[in-house]
C-alpha cells in the first residue's frame, strides 16, 4: 500500500536529486532537498483538505490528480506562474520574462517579491472563503463546540462568508496595503488598489469554481439517489449510464477546484523559496518534489480512510487554512518567516489528530462498557 501510493514520489525524488547533483553539484542537490522539505512542511494541511475532496472522486480522477495534476503543480505553479507574474507586473513579453528569470536572477526575484501584495491578497481571500464556508456550516461532528455551534447558527445567512471576506479585504487594503515597504529600499508604496483588485479576483474565482463544482456534486448525489431508488424497484434494470457521465463532470470541476486550492497554498512556498535560491529551475525542481509527496499523501489519506477514522483532522486542516489566509494578508506589509507558517499548520493538525484519538478511545471504552452491561443483564 505504502510503496504503491508513494512509489512515484520516491522515484521522482531519486531522479530529481540525481539531476540536481549532475547539473548544480552538491550545493544544488542540498538546496533541492531543503526546498522539498520546505514545501512538505508548508503544505501538509493542503493534503488533508485535498483528501476531503478527493475521496468523493473515483479511482480514475485520483490518478489524474497524481499525474496531470502534478504537472500543473510543478510546471504551472512552481515554474510558469512566477514568470507570468513578472511578465504582467513588469509589463514584459513572455520571452523577455523568461530571459530575465534565466539571465538576471536578482532582478527577477525583485519583481516577484514586488508582486507579493497582489499574490497574497488573491490567495488569502480564496483560502479565507474556504475556511469561512467550512466554519459557518452546521456539522454533525464538531471539534470546538464552544466556537463552532454559535458560528453555525450565524452561518444560516447564506452570504455571510462573502460579506465577512469583503470586510476583511477592505480592512487589509486600507491598513496593511497603504504603506507597503519597498523591496530593497527604505521607502513605502501604496498598494491599496492592487490588493483590492487581486482580493476581489480571489473571491470571484472561489465563487465560480467552488459554485460550479458544488452544483455538479449536488446533481451527482441526486442522480445517485434516484438510481438507488430505481434499483430497489427493479434490481435487474441498469440505470448507471447517466450517473457515470455526470460523475465525470462533477469530478472535472472538483479537479479544477483542487488545482486552485493547490495554487493558493503554493504562494507562500514560492515566495519563501527565494530566501534559499533565486534560480527558477532549482526552485521548480525542489518545490515540485515536495508537491509530489503532498499529492501522494492526499491519495494515501483517502485510500486508508484516515479522515473517517480521525474525524477532527478535517477541522484542524480548515483552521490551518484560516490561519494561513490571515498570515498571507499580514505579509502584504509585514514579513513572517516560513517556519512560523509551517508550524501553525502542523500544530493545528496535530491537536486535531490528538483530539480524534481521544474521541476514538472514549467511544471504544463506552462501547466496551455497554457490551459488559448487556452481558450482565442477559445473565451471561
From TrEMBL:
It comes from Streptomyces cinnamoneus (Streptoverticillium cinnamoneum). The chain crosses the membrane at residues 30-53, 65-90, 114-136, 157-180, 192-216, 236-258, 270-295, 316-334, 340-357. Pfam families: DUF475. This is Uncharacterized protein. InterPro entries: DUF475. The keyword Lipoprotein does not apply. Keywords: Membrane, Transmembrane, Transmembrane helix.
Amino acid at each position: 500500500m505504502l510503496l504503491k501510493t508513494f512509489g512515484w514520489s520516491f522515484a521522482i525524488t531519486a531522479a530529481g536529486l540525481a539531476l540536481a547533483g549532475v547539473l548544480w553539484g552538491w550545493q544544488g542537490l542540498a538546496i533541492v532537498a531543503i526546498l522539498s522539505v520546505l514545501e512538505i512542511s508548508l503544505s501538509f494541511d493542503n493534503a488533508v483538505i485535498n483528501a476531503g475532496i478527493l475521496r468523493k472522486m473515483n479511482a480514475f480522477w485520483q490518478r489524474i490528480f497524481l499525474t496531470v495534476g502534478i504537472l500543473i503543480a510543478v510546471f504551472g505553479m512552481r515554474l510558469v506562474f512566477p514568470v507570468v507574474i513578472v511578465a504582467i507586473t513588469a509589463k514584459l513579453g513572455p520571452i523577455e520574462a523568461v530571459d530575465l528569470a534565466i539571465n538576471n536572477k536578482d532582478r527577477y526575484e525583485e519583481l516577484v517579491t514586488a508582486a507579493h501584495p497582489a499574490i497574497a491578497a488573491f490567495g488569502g481571500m480564496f483560502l479565507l472563503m474556504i475556511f469561512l464556508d467550512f466554519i459557518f456550516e452546521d456539522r454533525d461532528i464538531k471539534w470546538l463546540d464552544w466556537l463552532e455551534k454559535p458560528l453555525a447558527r450565524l452561518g444560516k445567512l447564506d452570504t455571510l462568508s462573502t460579506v465577512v471576506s469583503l470586510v476583511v479585504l477592505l480592512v487589509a487594503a486600507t491598513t496593511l496595503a497603504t504603506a507597503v515597504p519597498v523591496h530593497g529600499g527604505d521607502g513605502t508604496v501604496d498598494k491599496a488598489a492592487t490588493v483590492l483588485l487581486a482580493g476581489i479576483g480571489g473571491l470571484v474565482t472561489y465563487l465560480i469554481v467552488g459554485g460550479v463544482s458544488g452544483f455538479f456534486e449536488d446533481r451527482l448525489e441526486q442522480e445517485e439517489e434516484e438510481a438507488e431508488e430505481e434499483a430497489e424497484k427493479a434490481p435487474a434494470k441498469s440505470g448507471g449510464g447517466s450517473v457515470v457521465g455526470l460523475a465525470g463532470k462533477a469530478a472535472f470541476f472538483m479537479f479544477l477546484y483542487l488545482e486552485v486550492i493547490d495554487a493558493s497554498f503554493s504562494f507562500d512556498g514560492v515566495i519563501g523559496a527565494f530566501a534559499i535560491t533565486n534560480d527558477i529551475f532549482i526552485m521548480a525542481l525542489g518545490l515540485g518534489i515536495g508537491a509530489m509527496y503532498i499529492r501522494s499523501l492526499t491519495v494515501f489519506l483517502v485510500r486508508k480512510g484516515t479522515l473517517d477514522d480521525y474525524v477532527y483532522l478535517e477541522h484542524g486542516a480548515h483552521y490551518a487554512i484560516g490561519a494561513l489566509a490571515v498570515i498571507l494578508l499580514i505579509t502584504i506589509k509585514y514579513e513572517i518567516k516560513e517556519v512560523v507558517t509551517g508550524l501553525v499548520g502542523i500544530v493545528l493538525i496535530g491537536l486535531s489528530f490528538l483530539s480524534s484519538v481521544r474521541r476514538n478511545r472514549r467511544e471504544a471504552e463506552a462501547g466496551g462498557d455497554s457490551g459488559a452491561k448487556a452481558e450482565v443483564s442477559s445473565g451471561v
